[in-house]
């Protein structure tokens, strides 16, 4: 197991920012670390990279405890912080050479050339960092995080503020990196998690609310599955609610459209058809709806 977190808590003065979270991440996996603003994502990632100490609980990276073996942890982990601090007046190549020296990266020249290519920095590599767009600065941060070829890559909101093209490229890169390394990245963009993660950990107000493979998370919420039906005329919602397997009814967006919220495993398609015939209605649409990861996330992290 390359990342192991057990009952981690963190207090900032009186505030409990992390309230006993535990999770694991394995090599060859992209783990999405999801949560609304202030959930505790950055706090967790800083503890994992040895930049912050926990109040209680344990965490280890590549088999090294973050408290007792922080140097070995830093050697095993590549970290892209949320506000990627770069020296703006340095040139890209110069900056990476400087970072490589600081980390005693062997054969730095070749390594830097490989990473400039890998992170798509080629066209911009001759520029000063201050002259780069946000997306290219993120690439410099990624290249830096990868310099010492770490087993574990920890990226704090690596895609925030990128345009759609840059977003697609960085996501592809993260996915590729996930094949060889353990990648943990934080985001509050649900579609991103759906697009590139194998697994998702969701935290909310310092507590873990889900830790599942993407498909399992969706399956877990299937108790809330619904069927959208549309007739040519109004139906009586109270009669529809009588159908076996229906938990409740809500109105659809267009007239004569109803959303039937179903019990887990219920299949009521035939019953809806018979209902239409018995009530002399014409059935125009019948479509099953499944919750997206976004809806699952909202359901799990709703205030209150
Ligand atoms: N240095 C600090 N001192 C006091 N409170 C802090 C400190 N850092 C974070 N917090 C608080 O701890 C909680 C968790 O913050 P954290 O930055 O880990 O959340 P996050 O999930 O990364 O949020 P975001 O998505 O907004 O970046 C927040 O309520 C925040 O205000």
UniProtKB/TrEMBL annotation:
The keyword ATP-binding applies. InterPro entries: AAA+_ATPase, ABC_transporter-like_ATP-bd, Motility-assoc_ABC_GldA, P-loop_NTPase. GO terms for molecular function: ATP binding. Residues 3-230 form the ABC transporter domain. Signal peptide: none annotated. Keywords: ATP-binding, Nucleotide-binding, Transport. It comes from the Bacteria. Belongs to the ABC transporter superfamily. NCBIfam families: GldA_ABC_ATP (TIGR03522). This is Vitamin B12 import ATP-binding protein BtuD.
